[in-house]
Amino acid sequence: MCLFLNQHDLNQLLQNTDNMAFDLEEQEQIDALKQFWKQYGGLIIALVIAALVTFGGVRGWKHYQLARAEDASALFMKLEESNRKNDLGEIRKLGGELVGKYGSTVYGPMAALVMARTNYDSGDAATAAEQLQWAIDKAADDELVAVARLRLAAIRLDEKKFDEALKLLDAKHGESLVPLYADLRGDVLVAQGKPDEARAAYKVALEKSAAASNYRNLVQIKFDALGQGK
User: Are 199 and 226 within 8 A, CB to CB?
Assistant: First the structure.
């Protein structure tokens, strides 16, 4: 056997050695991957399936919510039309359907406010108060809640439940409602026999209301009727 290799044979031997090393390394990686998949493959598949189900569920839920909102919107448009026509029976029917079926949408509390006004104007203040309280409890919109509180406070004033009315008026409300809240607070304080505090409340209403509005003129009349005070 020849103990010496020429350059060509030496290069060929080195290449074969490199190929064997590469094949061995590749096989080790494949074996490691097989072992990993054997150990964690089931978990990975389960996680992928769970992710797909969750994604599909979220999309389905969003589609369901959108469809409900569209249905509620269409129903509320009918309610508004009935309100314009002053059709009490239809208002109560459509409003009841909105509250019952779509109470979790924004249209449920809005419908409750419409029904409350209808019931109050027709002499059923107790039902109106219940509907306003429901709107306060259920509405997600802060401004809608503030409007419901204002209307409920007016009913409590009519019922001479002054402390309840003031408690409602103490709640947080937006800047646009400040004149109305202050004006009603003045009314409650007048009814309680507290003219100085009422005057202060009317003053806030005057300062926050538009200078040329008819509403401001009404507040001014009430403010002037209290005189100069102490």
Answer: yes
